[in-house]
Each structure stands twice: as C-alpha cells, then as structure tokens.
Design brief:
It contains 16 helices and 18 strands. By secondary structure, the protein is of the alpha/beta class. It has three domains: 135 residues, 3-Layer(aba) Sandwich (Rossmann fold); 128 residues, Alpha-Beta Complex (Hect, E3 ligase catalytic domain fold), CATH 3.90.1750; 155 residues, no CATH class. The strands form six sheets. Strands 2-1-3-4-5 form a five-stranded mixed sheet, sandwiched between helices.
Length: 511
C-alpha cells in the first residue's frame, strides 16, 4: 500500500479582512441629536479595532441633514462613490431610517449595492442583505421609515406655525448684520454701517451692481460666498428684518414625497411680526428705497440702456474684435470694430440694441423656465467632479476623523457645563480653543479638497439658482441690472448670439 506523507505549507496565507464602512446620520442639529451623532461615530470607530475578520475603511457621517433626499447628503454620496470604486465590501448602519426615509431611494441604493456585491447590515432591525432572498422586508420597513419622516415633518411644521402665530418663533438663521448672544439678538456694529451705507448709496442714485462692485473693491466680507452680487444687494434692500420686523413663511415645504421648497403665493398663511429684531434702518428710509426699486423696475429699457450697457460685452465670433456703439439717425446699433473700420475685413452685420435686448429677454425667460434642469445639473456635475478628484485622499479622511473627535469633545464639555461640573468661564475657554482647532483643520481641508476656480463657479451657480428660485415673473422689458449681474459677455455670429453667463453657462439665441 502506498505511503502518503502530508507536507505542510511553509508559507502561511494571510487572512484577507473584509473592508467595511459605517454610515451615521442625525436629522437635526439639536444637542440631543448631536450627542446621538457623536455616539454613533464613537461606537463604529471602536467596533472594528480588534476584529480579526473586518477592518474599518472609513466613517461616513452626515450631521443635521435630512434623510429624505439622497442629493442632500454629501457623505452618503461619498459612500456610494467609494462603493462604485471597489473600496468597500460591507456597510454597517444603525437602522433603515438612518440609511434612508424614502422607500424609492432606499431600494434603488440597495439594488445598486447588491449588484456591486456589497452587503448592508441594519443593526436595529437585525437585517442583513447578505441573507435576503427578496426585497419585501426592506420595502415594508422603508415604507414605515418614509411614513415616520412624513409624520415628523408634519408635527414639526405644526409646532413652528403655532410659534409663528403666537409671535414666539425664533428663526434659526439671522440676516447679515445680526448675531445671537445668550439667546438675545444683537446688532453687529462692524456690519451695521455697511448696511446703512448700502441703503444710503442706493437712495443717492447708485445701482445695485455698482454698490456690489464697490464693496468687492473694499474687500468687505459678503453674507455668503466670496463676492457681493446684485442679488445680494437686492436681498438686503428688500429685507424687512432691517426695520425690526419679520415676515414668516415666505416659503413652505410640501407635505408629500419628495419634499420640495416652494414660494408661498397665498397657499398658506404668512405671519408678519413687528419689533422682533433691533432696528438698523428707519421705516421711512426702507419705504423710500423700495419705492425707488419699483420705479426703476418700471422704467423702459430706452431710459436705461442708452448709457453703454453693452460696452466691452460683445465679441465678434468671426474676427474676435469688440463691438462699438453707433447712433444712426437716432437708432442705437452695435457694430464690430473691424467691420466698422473696413467692411471687407469682416462680414459681421450690425446689431440693433433692440435685437440685443430682445435676445436677452428670450434667453432669460427660457432659463427661468428650465433653470432646475440646466443650473442644478451643472452644479451637481461639477460637485461630482470635485468628489472624484479628491475623494480618495487618506489625508482628507484623517482630517475628517480629527474634526469629528474635536466636535465630540465640544459636546462632552457642553454636557459637563449643563450638569454643573464646569463653570462658564472654563467652558468658554475650552470651547474657544477647540473651535480654533476645528477652524484650522477645516482650512487645511479646503486647501486639500477645493480649487478656487471650481469654488467660484459653484458659488456663481448657487447664486443663479437662488435668484431664479426667488423670481416669480417672466421678464417683459429689458432689465439692465439683471443683464449686467448675470452676463459676462456675448459672442456675436451671423445668425445667433451666445450669452456667456455666470458659472460658465452658455446659451445661444437666434437673431
């Protein structure tokens, strides 16, 4: 009989650990919810430290973000992108309601993950998609989570409206020039003069764009973004908060999925509360400014556009030269400089100012009708390109983790102060130190993950979206300030004009 000798392997194969990710989310920024958020981060950070079979790739955590819309959750989108790149084998999350409160999105994402070979474990429901034969249980639980979201939304809106009706509602965000201290609304003295000057300059005859340009030259920090725009000035000039009053429920959220923000045009009650903030601008000045805004809006285009609105804005597609303003028997035309000097050198035809005005009106109204498709898609695509460019950096992940630890320390000392274990002075000292560290890390993060050019474009697209969301009516007659703040240049061809707008948007219109 043959003798069999077993030869043991001389090289032991190393067990390959399964790469796991944890997703955490809380749906508000209240202290209790933030404690829950930090608890989830801490739990998952320690869960896999000593595991022999699994290793934590990354933590993905959305703080104070709704679960009803995937596109509102930056960290969730980053998680899905890393899954598509093959960086993750399994996902852990607290519950289905943390993962999604929209059944449709929940199923869509789970199907995609299943196709990628990635499993998801929901700890609260003890559901593991690795053991699922169908999607019935997920559909039921996802539906319950969606109903929970609707219920929470309705209860929250009811409570807020009750506070509005009683005059006790405190808006979470204060306008430019105000801040809260010990629960009281205060005026920022350094910004008070900026706001007063904006109103004064407009009454003295300066346009909104001119005021914005002057503030940019003085390098005065704007309410949002890096630059002042015409729309920023309009927001301040028309905001009743600066006379101490507040009109609540200018916008509202729909009651059904998907939740959408809409401008309140009479569908729901509005609440006008007087004396809710310290007054910066007298009522008489505010009224004069808003009357002047209405008067200027009602002026015909001929009173406003004859002052060289298109100077340096129009470029010839054929030869590249600028267009010059010409007056033929009282009619204003814009002519290619090369053609004007010698027609044989360029075949560009003159454009009447009315043609230019009418073309912009058409472009504006088309964009007003389709801005959600054009602008928001452009914003999302650019944001996605940024994520692809910077999403896989180990250094970025480490900074995110460090920021999370510092925020956890902030919440710990907040609880200590609340329970009386820390005095106010010590609390303020430690909070200031932690916040300074967080700001430095965030600044470092921006250097690693943000490009100035990309950020400027994203801000410009965001400003355009905000403007069109507030715009209610089509443009009937040419609006010079709108044109000046929105259009970088026009490229003129024989039969069409291309309008180059903020954010790199280009729209063509026939002439």
């Amino acid at each position: 009989m043959a003798t069999i000798t077993v030869i043991q392997p001389s090289i032991m194969t190393e067990t390959v650990k399964r790469r796991v990710a944890a997703y955490c989310r809380v749906s508000s920024s209240s202290e209790d919810q933030l404690n829950s958020y930090q608890a989830q981060l801490t739990y998952y950070s320690h869960k896999f430290e000593e595991s022999d079979t699994e290793e934590l790739v990354d933590l993905y955590a959305d703080e104070g973000i709704t679960g009803t819309r995937d596109d509102k959750r930056d960290e969730f989108q980053r998680l899905m992108k890393d899954c598509r790149r093959g960086k993750i084998d399994r996902i852990y999350t607290k519950s289905i309601s943390r993962f999604a409160r929209n059944t449709k999105d929940c199923l869509k994402n789970l199907r995609e993950l299943k196709a990628l070979g990635i499993t998801v474990f929901f700890e609260k429901e003890n559901i593991d998609t690795a053991n699922m034969t169908d999607e019935i249980m997920i559909t039921i639980l996802g539906g319950l989570a969606q109903e929970e979201s609707v219920s929470i939304s309705q209860n929250t809106k009811w409570a807020i409206r009750k506070k509005m009706a009683s005059g006790t509602y405190n808006a979470p965000h204060l306008p430019y020039g105000y801040y809260r201290k010990d629960g009281e609304i205060q005026v920022d003295d350094s910004l008070k003069e900026v706001i007063k000057n904006i109103f004064s300059d407009y009454l003295s005859g300066e346009g909104m764009t001119a005021i914005a340009n002057e503030l940019n030259l003085k390098e005065i920090e704007p309410p949002i973004g890096k630059r002042w725009y015409m729309s920023t000035i309009r927001y301040i000039l028309t905001n009743e908060r600066y006379i101490g009053d507040a009109l609540f429920q200018k916008k509202y959220s729909t009651d059904t999925f998907p939740f959408e923000k809409k401008r309140n045009k009479g569908e729901l009650d509005q609440y006008y509360i007087q004396g809710i903030l310290p007054q910066i601008i007298p009522q008489s000045i505010f009224n004069k400014v808003n009357c002047l805004i209405s008067e200027r809006k009602d002026k015909t285009s001929t009173n406003c556009t004859s002052t060289y609105m298109y100077t340096s804005k129009i470029k010839c597609k054929l030869c590249g030269c600028s267009y010059r303003r010409k007056n033929y028997n009282g009619q204003i035309y814009w002519v290619c400089k090369t053609h004007n000097e010698k027609a044989a050198n360029c075949n560009a035809t003159p454009l009447s100012e009315k043609q230019l005005n009418d073309a912009f009106i058409k472009v504006f109204n088309k964009l007003l009708h389709h801005y959600k498709i054009i602008l928001i898609n452009a914003y999302d695509l650019l944001q996605e390109l940024k994520c692809k460019k910077y999403g896989g950096s180990v250094q970025v992940i480490d900074i995110h983790k460090e920021i999370a630890k510092l925020r956890e320390q902030n919440h710990v000392i907040a609880r200590l102060r609340t329970k009386g274990f820390m005095d106010e002075g010590k609390y303020q000292e430690q909070t200031k130190e932690l916040n300074n560290k967080i700001r430095k890390l965030q600044a470092e993060l921006k250097k690693l993950t943000r490009s100035d050019d990309e950020d400027d474009v994203l801000e410009q697209l965001d400003m355009l979206v905000d403007y069109f969301e507030k715009r209610e009516q089509l443009m009937v007659s040419f609006e010079p300030e709108t044109f000046d703040s929105m259009v970088d240049k026009i490229t003129a061809n024989q039969n069409d004009l291309t309008f180059h707008l903020l954010g790199g948007i280009e729209l063509k219109e026939k002439i």
